[in-house]
Amino acid sequence: MPQKRNLPIGIQAFDKLRRGGHYYVDKTPHLLRLVSEGGYFFLSRPRRFGKSLLLDTLKCLFEGRQDLFEGLFILEQWDWQVRHPVIRLSFADGVLTTRETLDVHIDELLRAEASRLEVALTNTSIPGRFRELIQQAHAVHGQRAVVLIDEYDKPILDNITEPERARAVREGLKNLYSVLKDADPHLRFCLLTGVSKFSKVSLFSGLNNLNDITLDEPYADICGYTDHDVDTVFAAELPGLDRAEIRDWYNGYRWGGADTPSVYNPFDLLLLFQKRRFAPYWFESATPTFLVDLLSERGVFTPRLEAMQTEAELLGRFDVDGIATEALLFQTGYLTVHAVEEPMTGYWLYTLGYPNREVESSLNQALLPALGVPESPRQRLSLFRILQAHDLDALEVHFKALFASLPHDWYRNNPIARYEGHYASVFYSHFAALGLRISVEDSSHMGKVDMAVEFGGHVYVFEFKVVEQVPQGRALQQIKDKGYADKYRGRGQPIHLIGVEFSRVQRQVVAFEVETVPVT
């Protein structure tokens, strides 16, 4: 029986983790590869993915703290006699809302690092002090310096809903990071981590040798836990938990093609092991309200979030004055890579989708009020009970009541109501908020059905129509004509074909036709 160890919940210090009898997933093969390549690197990962621990591990490595690496891959691969001065700057703590408070914070960081490295600073400007810190660290310690910057973008993200403040803070950070370009003779290694990838032009001022490894397949699992890690390192924690449910609820983050490993967010997994119950731990920890507001403002068709295609260039574009929906959702961790294609040489297409059941359920729950639905636990419980009983008459009544609850002023004040997908979005998000297994635009040999839901040994196949656009009575007929249910036959499960028709004029479900396919 594997021996239990301490769960490293919230631990970001490598020495504390290694000396405290905690579980540790060995990431040093990735670090050896990264350090061997040398240069300036950038890594984007969502919050609570272990970026701070990664940087602290690198700090201990370059400082030559050999005892902390006993039993790890890198122990026999590293020259422990060579020790580098490490400058580590973190913007993780506090909320900085002005350029002035940012400059004070940066100056405090530089002073603290200078004191720790026993370096005297005489310059007065921030760029001057940072440049002097790097040069003097090299001179005093006899080895080139290492610069590690944690949450490099947090001051901007904290002000992203206030563009003027965000721009001012961005210029303050640019003032700091611009030093790295000409510091190359004094630097051994540099890594910046954060949630978002701001454009080099707007933030890094010519630092064109910054190597973005966010989507590089060799580093796909540099942060997070793989299935192999769960089954080996955390084997002692698994008894009593449904392994398939762990995978379904929490696995699925991917930064590369189908051949790259998918990973779990460590925060989710560690809290599951501690509390022994499934819950949206990561989502509830700090989902930004501006994300929901932005998706609402842009009228996002929520079923499309399951399979959203985008170009590689758009995926990496993020700035105060222009945040692409795809980039925002991907970089913050609400969507992840499902597939990578190169249909033409040099032209890369990424298909994004939810990483797992936790994110799909929680995000749609958060989006329902933006769709005009006063979502509540009572409504979710009602839907759950109806599906438990497989009561299709009650399902019709439930959704008619749901649409009737949308206030008239909401229609008048929200442009999303004009999108033909609004009704389908409400339907999909209400099911998704319950955490059900849903397929959107699921392909058959004749086409794509709008939505299929599997629950309790039954399959529900939905087609949606707006009666002002097509003749009434076509939704159910299309399911039958196109054979949308064929792929579910032979399972020995009841299949319910449901044609749902809406009226924009009446703002209501005007037809809810059902036909059940006998079990074969």
Task: Give a description of the structure.
The structure is a single chain. A five-stranded parallel β-sheet has the order 2-3-4-1-5. Strands 11-12-13-14-15 form a five-stranded mixed β-sheet, with helices on both faces. The protein has a three-stranded antiparallel β-sheet with strand order 6-10-9. Among the domains are: about 190 residues, Rossmann fold (3-Layer(aba) Sandwich), CATH 3.40.50; about 160 residues, no CATH class. About 0% of the residues have low confidence. By secondary structure, it is an alpha/beta fold. It has 21 helices and 15 strands. Strand 7 and strand 8 form a beta hairpin. The relative contact order is 0.08. The two termini are about 45 Å apart. Pfam families: AAA-ATPase_like (PF09820), PDDEXK_9 (PF08011).
Describe the structure in brief:
By secondary structure, the chain is α/β, with parallel strands linked by helices. It has helices at 14-19, 28-37, 51-62, 99-116, 126-141, 154-157, 163-177, 200-203, 227-232, 243-250, 266-275, 281-286, 289-297, 312-315, 325-331, 357-367, 377-389, 392-404, 408-413, 422-433, 474-482; strands at residues 39-44, 86-90, 145-150, 187-194, 210-212, 308-311, 318-319, 322-323, 336-344, 347-353, 437-444, 447-455, 458-466, 495-503, 508-517.
The CATH architecture of the domain at 26-219 can be given as 3-Layer(aba) Sandwich
Helix content: 25-40%
What fold name stands as the CATH topology of the domain at 26-219? Rossmann fold
Looking at the structure, what is the overall shape?
elongated
Number of helices: 21
Tell me about the largest β-sheet.
5 strands, parallel
Query: Rg, please?
Result: 26 Å
Please identify the top-level CATH class of the domain at 26-219. Answer: Alpha Beta
Outline the low-pLDDT stretches.
Answer: 443-447
Structural class: alpha/beta
Mean of all residue-level pLDDT scores:
89
Q: Span between N and C termini?
A: 45 Å
| Arrangement of strands in the largest sheet | 2-3-4-1-5
In what range is the share of β-strand residues?
A: 15-25%
Count of distinct strands: 15
